[in-house]
């Protein structure tokens, strides 16, 4: 009715929009990937598996679907990170629990699973990129050590990091991704990077491109 030329989603509403567009005979054009792709990347477990299939470095991870799963993972090795497969801003994350009491809020179920990953010491980085049909069209990498704990970044300082750029470019190409995408990384003491999770949406790092007229 409004003769919309292009829909540009900016947050998790992209997932719902993609699902709705799939059900229309002649949907309006959207700057976003299809529903299955968005769901795969937003789900931290599925993202980890997809990256591993592409031989891209990610931390060792395991899906948790019960309280017993969580307790078993803790008993094997407490030097780990527990987080829901669907979450943002590091909500509910438990990092390197020392006692069972630290896992009081970790209650995975079949319908609401969690993920446990090896803890990776190092410096955090993150990215913001634009892509179209698998082609990276704009990219920014920034150090995300100015943040609230493991949550959102408050200060964006652009850096050049070839390893991270190559990781994102390969992933975008392999998934034929379209839209906005952010990936979080940890760089270890040897300078090697590992991607911990993905945000298939806009992030605050778009400000790093705001002065470029092409953006």
Structure commentary:
- There is one protein chain.
- With 215 residues, the chain is of the alpha+beta class.
- 24% of the residues lie in helices and 25% in strands.
- It contains five helices and nine strands, in the order αααβαββββββαββ.
- The protein has helices at 13-22, 35-42, 44-53, 67-76, 162-175, and strands at 61-64, 80-84, 94-95, 114-118, 123-132, 135-143, 157-159, 179-187, 193-199.
- The strands form two sheets. It has a five-stranded antiparallel β-sheet with strand order 7-6-5-8-9.
- α2 packs across α3.
- It is globular and about 55 Å long.
- The two termini are 28 Å apart.
Question: What is the topological layout?
Answer:
Elements: H1 13-22, H2 35-42, H3 44-53, E1 61-64, H4 67-76, E2 80-84, E3 94-95, E4 114-118, E5 123-132, E6 135-143, E7 157-159, H5 162-175, E8 179-187, E9 193-199
Antiparallel strand pairs: 1-4, 2-3, 2-4, 5-6, 5-8, 6-7, 8-9
Helix pairs in contact: 2-3
Brief summary of the model shown:
With 215 residues, this protein is an alpha+beta fold. The protein has helices at 13-22, 35-42, 44-53, 67-76, 162-175, and strands at 61-64, 80-84, 94-95, 114-118, 123-132, 135-143, 157-159, 179-187, 193-199. 24% of the residues lie in helices and 25% in strands.
Please give the count of helices.
5
Overall body shape: globular
State the low-pLDDT regions, or none: none
Q: Provide mean pLDDT, rounded.
A: 89
- Identify the strand order in the major beta sheet: 7-6-5-8-9
Largest sheet: 5 strands, antiparallel
Beta-strand segment tally: 9
* Structural class label: alpha+beta
What's the helix-strand series?
A: HHHEHEEEEEEHEE
> CA-to-CA gap between the ends?
28 Å
Radius of gyration, CA atoms, in whole angstroms: 18 Å
Proportion of strand residues = 25-35%
Helix content: 10-25%
């Amino acid at each position: 009715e409004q003769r919309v030329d292009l829909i540009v989603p900016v947050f998790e509403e992209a997932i719902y929009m993609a699902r709705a567009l799939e059900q229309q005979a002649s949907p309006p054009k959207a700057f976003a990937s299809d529903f299955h792709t968005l769901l795969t990347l937003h789900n931290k477990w599925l993202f980890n598996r997809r990256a591993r299939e592409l031989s891209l470095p990610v931390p060792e991870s395991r899906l948790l679907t019960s309280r017993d799963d969580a307790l078993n993972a803790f008993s094997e090795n407490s030097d780990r990170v527990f987080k829901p497969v669907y979450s943002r801003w590091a909500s509910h994350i438990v990092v390197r629990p020392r006692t069972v009491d630290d896992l009081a809020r970790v209650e995975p179920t079949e319908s609401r699973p969690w993920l446990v990953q090896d803890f990776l010491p190092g410096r955090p980085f993150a990215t913001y990129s634009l892509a179209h049909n698998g082609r990276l069209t704009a990219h920014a990498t920034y150090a995300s050590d100015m943040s609230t704990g493991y949550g959102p970044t408050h200060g964006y300082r652009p850096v050049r990091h070839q390893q991270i750029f190559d990781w994102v470019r390969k992933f975008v190409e392999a998934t034929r991704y379209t839209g906005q995408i952010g990936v979080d990384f940890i760089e270890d003491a040897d300078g090697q990077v590992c991607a911990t999770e993905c945000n298939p949406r806009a992030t605050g790092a778009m400000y790093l491109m705001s002065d470029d007229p092409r953006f």
